[in-house]
Amino acid sequence: MKKVQLSLLSLALLAFVGCKNETKKAEEEAKEVVEEVVEEVKKEVKTVTIPLEAKSESSVTGNVSFSEKEGVVHMVAKMSGLTAGTHAIHLHEKADCSSADAKSSGGHWNPTFKDHGAWGAETGYHKGDIGNFEVGEDGTGRVEFSTNEWCIGCGDNNKDIMGKAVVVHQGADDFTSQPSGAAGARVSCAGIIE
After folding, report:
1. Calpha distance 136→153 (Å, rounded)
2. Using one digit for the tens of pLDDT, what is the confidence trace for 88-126?
């Protein structure tokens, strides 16, 4: 009788240890799945933040952040040191802000060879034609812009903003003058690089 009780106790103990091992294994597998999901989410949201440099003897500085999620790029630009009024902001073709006037950044980014115009215009627009924004008496400006026509580091020459520059202009874009909208001097510049 004692042998039967010992055998039953041994079986119960083995079953308990087996269940405990299965639970631990399931917990480890669940942890691996969570880690994989977190890594995928990190891959899905791409971000780049770049500092704006003052150009053309201005004092305009700030930063620009780009984030991409589910095929849409969202840009937020924050600037200070601007004169009150309307200013233009564009993407230019080269991430080169080395010259004092930022002309080293080239012309507007226009991979589809369209005429300059307001973003979304039926008559055409450059992929870099972001538009105008207003600046108050305190000299600060903020621009938010979202599009599915850009990507961050995707390698598509018609969409990829990496290697381009953000340029802030002294004046407003008239959306008609070719090829750049007659927005005046380039007062701030930032190359879009990691």
Report:
1. 34
2. 999 999 999 999 999 999 999 999 999 999 998 888 899
> Which range has the worst mean pLDDT, 5-9, 69-73, 153-157?
5-9
Distance of alpha carbon 150 from its chain centroid, rounded? 9
- Record the tokens describing residue 133, joined without a space: 């924004």
Separation CA 194–CA 192 (nearest Å): 7
CATH match for 46-191 among 2.60.120.260, 3.40.50.2300, 3.40.50.720, 2.60.40.200: 2.60.40.200
Residue 5's Cβ-count burial label (10 Å; 0-12, 13-18, 19+) is exposed
* Distance in angstroms (rounded) separating the CA atoms of residues 132 and 172: 6
Indicate the pTM of the whole model.
Answer: 0.77
The tokens for 178 are: 């070719």
